[in-house]
Every structure is written in C-alpha cells, then in structure tokens.
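Appendix B. Raw example, untouched.
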Amino acid sequence: MKKKTSVVSGIYIALIFIFLYAPIAVMMLFSFNSTASTYTFSGLSLHWYREMFSDAAAMNSLKNTVILALATAVAASVIGLLASIGLFNSKNRLYKRAMMTATNIPMMNPEIVTGIAMMLLFVFAGTLVNKSDVLGFWTLLIAHVTFALPYVILNVMPKLKQFDMHVYEAALDLGCKPAKAFFKVVMPEIVTGIITGFVMSFTLSLDDFIISYFTNGPSFQTLPIYIFSMTKKRVKPDMFALSTLMFVVILVLLILMNIAQNKAARKGKREAK
C-alpha cells in the first residue's frame, strides 16, 4: 500500500513539474531554432542570440531593467535592514505586531491594486508640484522598493531573533563602540538573511510587469513592458533568447542563494554542537 502511494505521489509531482517547466523548456529550445517558426524546429542555431544583441531597443530595455533591479535590491536591503533592527529592538509588542502586519500588506495585496494606487499617488504628487511627466525611473524605483521591502524584513528578522544578543553586549563591555560592534559581531550572523533579501528583491524587480506597467513613463522602459508591447504584433524568437538568458541568470542566483543558506545552516549546527 505504501509503495503504491509513493508511486502515485511521484507521478503527481512529475506531472506538476512538467506542467510548470514544459513551456520554459519549449521556449529555450526554440530560442536555438534556425528559422523564425514558432511551431517547427528546423535545427540548432545561435542566430536569434545574435539578433537579440543587435536589437538596440531590447538591449536598452534590458539595461534599464538591470539598473532598476540593482537599485531596488540595494535600497530595499538597506531600508529593510534598518527597519528590522528597529523592530527587533522595539519593546512595544503592540507596535511591533502592527508594523509586521503592515509589512505584509504589499505581499498580500493584488499587484494591480498596488500598481493603480501608486500611479494615482505619483500623479497626484506631480500635480502638487506642477509636473506632468512625473512617471519615470524614480517612480518605478519607489514602487519596486515598496513591494520588495517586506521580503528583506522577513529574511533578516529571523536571523536577528536567532542571534545571541549577549555576544553584542559583551563586545560593548569590552570597549567596542555600538556601530563597530554591530558590524563586527551582529552583521556576520545576519548577512545570509541580507543576501537572501537582496537576491529576492533583485529577481522580483527583474520580472515585475503589472506594477511597472502603471508606474513607468515614456522615458524609462523596462524589459517586461518592452516584451508586452511586442505582443501586439508577432513576437520574434530573439525574445525567446532574451527570456532564456533571464531565466538562466535567475536560476543561477537562486542556486547560489540556496548554497549560501545551506552553508549557513550547517555552520549554525556545528556551532550549536
């Protein structure tokens, strides 16, 4: 009976993985297609990768997307770290619970609601300063930091709770200044949480479309919006090549993040023993 149950569960898991990753596998395969056909594979070729790198509009959108994702990850990591430290040191449980609830709102809120609300906020702020073209890089950055910030806080807070604050207090008693004690004692213990939040912020910003669609302006176009604009006409396989590269980059980042987390977990177990 147990063997039969395990076989059924194995088939079920396999079907889920096929359903999730078969479209990506097909896209990656056709990115190497020698012709422009999206239903007949004619042979292996790097033609569409060369076409992709020669497309100035696509490369500019990719550059904008990477710049925005890096800026979002850095800003969200710094603000999230400071917010986590402030919440951790707060003695008011009601305040801490209320702030953690507020932190979860951008994660639970539908993206289209967040996008429309932020667009209205930015346009309203623009009217107050008599500026019509307010939407652009900075509005995108604020919007992306808003939905990426909770992921940093939720990754850093558990690391702070696991840390033995007596070690930090001992460093202060030995004459270390608070800032130096934090960077020498606390930071090495929570750095894995910061890195995890950084990577998650980067990947979330990299592939966001809905919020970016409502908060971007004509002067700054991200790659997801550029690809969406191409759906009004026939999408060429060079977009398959670009999407494949983005998928591989995100996959590598996630693998490195998991490796770092596993190393930190093994280190914690050894120190506990």
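End of appendix B.
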